[in-house]
Write a structure and sequence with these properties.
With about 325 residues, this protein is mainly alpha-helical. It has 13 helices and two strands.
């Protein structure tokens, strides 16, 4: 198992280096951070002095090596927009994004599995038909339109839920949470539903298709021939084997939820790292933009490693493959 984990971690290192190179190279030529910091009235001497302080007068490869060495030491640089350490700014915004992503993930997984099982076992029921039609509509409509529709219905027309912000938050250690206050819980409902919609449809359709395939297997027919109760056949034998491939997709969906939170956070003005990234693009804040991509890539890599380990534990074929000479 340790060798399996070591291989996954070793494979993640070049992925992170390539991601850092691409993000740093792309954002290096977006806008002019010196002009954004000093304004158009700055003299040439002032611009040259600030560029030297930021290291922007160095060749690209020197800037990249300096950036990577700082990241390895845990230093993500200083934001050129607000003049604070990037790591500190991201840590302040990260709890908001993680709470939104995890709540959306739980919502998408729970409803997706339940509705997928119903759609497979009772395909002619009203819930199954409504779920399939709704999933098709959710996949076809962009996320920002779903967000705007939710705001219009539940905030503008009904006035039940707030349309922006995170509500009142409390400090629990270094973690800032809004899940312990009424306004915080109300504020997270709409963005969580919006962010979970697309992932819910994918999980629903995956569970339905896998469940239908499992129910047509020979061991399911044999279990029915033995006279076992339908509940035992469906949920002990059928659902257990259905969820094996869902575990892999679930890990990818969690990473996608965190990455796609940029749109949702922008529409709802949710104070997470996604909104921080969008604001950084406007002001050409290169350290924040590059660090955001690295953080998202690290989350993707970590989630994939965890999913691989879970898959290694639940699938004996992988364990047998590892012990072979």
């Amino acid at each position: 198992m340790m060798y399996f984990l070591f291989r996954r971690v070793a494979a993640a290192v070049p992925v992170m280096l390539i991601t850092a190179l691409i993000s740093f190279a792309a954002f290096r030529y977006i806008g002019d951070p010196v002009q954004n910091m000093l304004g158009p009235e700055a003299t040439i001497e002032e611009r040259a002095r600030l560029a030297a302080e930021l290291g922007l007068d160095k060749p690209f490869y020197e800037q990249f090596v300096r950036f990577i060495s700082s990241v390895v030491q845990g230093n993500l640089g200083v934001s050129t927009r607000i003049g604070r350490p990037v790591g500190q700014v991201i840590l302040e915004r990260l709890p908001a994004t993680l709470e939104l992503a995890l709540l959306s993930f739980v919502l998408a997984m729970s409803l997706g599995i339940i509705l997928g099982v119903i759609a497979a076992l009772r395909p002619r029921s009203f819930i199954a038909r409504a779920s399939m039609i709704g999933s098709l509509a959710a996949v076809s409509v962009p996320n920002f339109l779903i967000s705007i529709a939710l705001i219009y219905v539940f905030s503008v027309r009904l006035g039940w839920l707030p349309s922006f912000g995170r509500g009142k938050t409390v400090q629990v250690g270094w973690w800032t949470t809004g899940l312990l206050t009424v306004s915080g819980l109300k504020s997270i409902i709409l963005p969580a539903i919006s962010l979970a919609t697309y992932q819910l449809t994918l999980i629903l359709r995956l569970v339905r298709s896998e469940m239908l395939e499992v129910l047509s297997a020979d061991y399911i027919r044999f279990a029915r021939a033995r006279g076992l109760p339908d509940r035992l056949v469906y949920f002990t034998y059928g659902l257990r084997n259905t969820l094996v491939p869902v575990v892999t997709i679930a890990g990818l969906q969690l990473g996608l939820i965190i990455a796609f939170a940029v749109v949702t956070e922008t529409v709802f003005q949710w104070p997470g790292v996604g909104l921080l990234f969008v604001n950084s693009i406007v002001y050409s804040d290169i350290p924040v933009m590059a660090s955001y991509i690295l953080v998202v890539a690290m989350i993707f890599v970590t989630v994939n490693i965890v999913v691989d380990m879970i898959y290694f534990l639940i699938d004996p074929r992988l364990r047998n493959k590892e012990v072979r000479p």
